[in-house]
Amino acid sequence: MVSVSPRHQDAALVVCAVVLLAAPLWVAPLGLAEPTYHYDHAEVVVDDGEIRFADSNVATQAWPLSEQLACTGRDHRTCAFETYLAGGPSIPGLTYTTNPNATESMSDSPRDYEYVVGTDGVYEPASEVSDAPETVDGYADLYRMNLSVDRVPARGALRAIAIDSDDVSAPVREAAASGPAESGIDADPPKTPVRTADGSYYRVYRSGTEDPPAIERSLERGLTIGSPLLGVGLMLFVSRQFEVSYTGGGS
């Protein structure tokens, strides 16, 4: 039978006390009392030159098809400016260029999207250089950039705004490929379609959140609060042992 000296026993108790005191640091990574996040997908297709959800009922959801695609879903707005450009001539912009052959995008039109869904297809914001040079504030030979939109193939626009499944988190990749998925962390799905390995497109969204069981919440609370208290108690006990040993050794 191996005997353990009182000094080694006290050292072991000190180590245990330190571990218990540090409980708030090692309990958190355990993931106790964390909610479970549920994800699902909605297929995105190109139909008759239009990018839309395969299920028409999905369009009534609170999330848009893509943040890069304006005038779709519940985020639909009048889009009068883009609609006018799609059906008529360009509009004089606020910027100028010295290059009569410039092809800059619609840079002085405030927007946070790449494409616009019109009544008859998908359009990309663009600019046209005016034919005649102007003199502005003493600067000659400046060409005004006129705002316009160019119609583009819907399939190419969808491919451009989509994110490849290799570039998203595992829960999002699973939801895009097979539907319902869950994760212990918020995977934060991209606000645009995900392109799967077979070339299909799906908009992944969070379908719900499930609170942890009561027993997990109680265990997490007990470890976070109770363990440091127990650690303090052990430290007090060990300190008294040292005091007794020191007093006894000196008498």
Summary, kept brief:
Residues 172-198 are annotated as: Disordered. With 251 residues, the protein is of the alpha+beta class. Helices cover 33% and strands 29% of the residues.
Q: Based on Cα principal axes, name the global outline.
A: elongated
Content-based structural category: alpha+beta
Q: Give the percentage of residues in beta strands.
A: 25-35%
User: What is the N-to-C succession of helices and strands?
Assistant: HHEEEHEEEEEHEHEEEH
Mean of residue pLDDT values: 78
- Terminal-residue CA separation: 31 Å
- Helix fraction, binned, reads 25-40%
- Count of discrete alpha- or pi-helical segments spanning 4 or more residues: 6
Largest beta-sheet characterization: 6 strands, mixed
The count of β-strands is 12
Uncertain segments are none
Return Rg in Å.
Answer: 32 Å
The count of domains is 2
Region (Disordered): 172-198
InterPro entries: DUF8127 (IPR058440)
Pfam families: DUF8127
Structure notes:
InterPro entries: DUF8127. The chain is of the alpha+beta class and 251 residues long. The chain folds into two domains: 13-22 and 214-250; 36-210, no CATH class. 33% of the residues lie in helices and 29% in strands. It contains six helices and twelve strands. The strands form two sheets. Strands 1, 2, 9, 10, 11 and 12 form a six-stranded mixed beta sheet that branches. A hairpin with a 5-residue loop joins strand 11 and strand 12. Helix 1 (6-21) runs antiparallel to helix 6.
